[in-house]
Amino acid sequence: MIQLIRGVKDILPGDAGLWQYIEREASSLFENFGFKNIRIPIMERTELFSRSIGEQTDIVEKEMYTFEDRGGDMITLRPEATASIVRSYIQHRMYAADPVQKLYTIGPMFRRERPQKGRYRQFYQIDAEVFGVASPLMDSQIIFMLMTLFSRLKVSDCSVRLNSLGCPECRTAFKSALSAFLESRSVSLCEDCQRRRDRNPLRVLDCKAPACRQAMEGAPAIGDFLCADCRGHFDAVMQNLARLDIPFETDKNLVRGLDYYTRTAFEIQTTLLGAQSAVAGGGRYDGLVKMLGGPDTPAIGFAIGMDRLSEIVAAHFGDFSRKPRMFIAALGSACQALAFEWVNRLNSEGIYAEMDMADRSLKSQMKQADRQGAARVVIFGDTEMAAKQVLVRDMATHEQTTVPLESFTEYVTKM
Ligand code: HAM
After folding, report:
1. Mind listing the domains of the chain with CATH numbers?
2. Pairing state of beta strands 278-284 and 262-270?
């Protein structure tokens, strides 16, 4: 038997109902905040990701699914959605109609990480991006939107971690302080960080290797190097969050694993998922649209890890698969023919009804109805046909009622 490849999973019908519920809640909430759905391709030119996420990040260096297609182009399965949405914003000149665009998408992403609970090689994100708004009001608003979604989904145990990564101006001073610090710790750093040290020292702060973590204790923090504008922006974000009653903690070690961030960076963390504590992450990326060839446009966004979110939400919600409102147990071909008409009519009118199509006995039809979780069984056999009525059995209370055939439609409508 051919099995799944490592790090990917099936989302079976029992779980998929919960996924659909989360997706519906997210879409409807985001649309209340003015976001519009966008669908972007699963593969893009490799260069789009290596340039925006950064050549020296773990994602680009080690985790991308990249291949040369038959035409010789280098193609990558998207490891995230932000770069593609930026490409689309530029390519379709969305800014010409209105520089302010709020977009969201939901779908699979691919990273070749070491699989473990909450970490997959094909995983799903709910991603939201805002273009054209530089104001710190937007930073706070999207965090508010995110936390509102989590509260609607009854995710209580989660906290907002917040940092500012500054702008290229404040980063220059920070990078030289960091480089000097790294030089003093150089021998303790892992092989990757030795390489990153000179070209992209910020990435060393993000390294998960225990030796690097230890070596980086006491490293300079970007927060101490913010220019006046970045400081003011960060303070305003915090004030607005307080105004919206969103608790948060500042975390000077939060640098995020992608290179494009400027100013606000945040993560939503939970203690419910063991090692994989980040259930969502995001931040501002004011330089990316220009870097990829578009007009100078501020932008901010986030992505929620659907796999992680659904695991938390599953703990509060029961089975999401839809149960039949009724099961029509018909006996004999004449009754079955009528049941067939009814079931199709009910299904097309929005009522989930089931029937047996294998000429089973009444006893096994009752069992089948029970297995499917039907709310009631409508029994329809020769005796009922002769008396021009059906017998309705409530599966929870076991109460039975007879309903005249002529008022069956009315009964169903009232139900
Ligand atoms: P990220 O932090 O790389 O950010 O991913 C966002 C979320 O996706 C994580 O917090 C996590 O919940 C989930 N995630 C990431 N990798 C995996 C994995 N291997 N298995 C399961 N879940 C995973 C981004 O992707 C940015 N594009 C977010 C963003 C949007 N920033 C601005 N706009």
Report:
1. 13-167+227-314 (3.30.930.10), 326-414 (3.40.50.800)
2. antiparallel
Residue among 59, 89, 109, 313 whose CB has most ligand 1 atoms within 8 A, to mutate: 109
What digits encode the pLDDT tens for the residues 132-161?
A: 999 999 999 999 999 999 999 999 889 999
Distances (CA, A) of 124 to 119, 253, 262: 11, 26, 25
Does the CB atom of residue 301 touch ligand 1 within 6 A? Answer: yes
Calculate how far, in angstroms, residue 233's C-alpha sits from the geometric centre of ligand 1.
Answer: 24
CB-ligand 1 contact for 308 (6 Å cutoff)? yes
Q: What is the pTM (predicted TM-score) of this model?
A: 0.93
Nearest in space to 147 (alpha carbons), one of 250, 298, 279, 317: 279
Q: Provide the CA 47 distance to its chain's centre, in angstroms.
A: 25
Q: Which atom of ligand 1 is nearest to the CA of 282?
A: 31
- For the cut 90, the answer to whether the pLDDT of residue 14 exceeds it is no
Paired strand residues for 153? none
3-class DSSP assignment, residue 380: strand
pLDDT digits (tens, 9 = 90+) for 23-71: 999 999 999 999 999 999 999 999 999 999 999 899 999 999 999 999 9
- Is residue 132 in contact with ligand 1, taking CB distance under 6 Å? no
How many CA atoms lie less than 13 Å away from 333 in the CB half-sphere?
Answer: 0
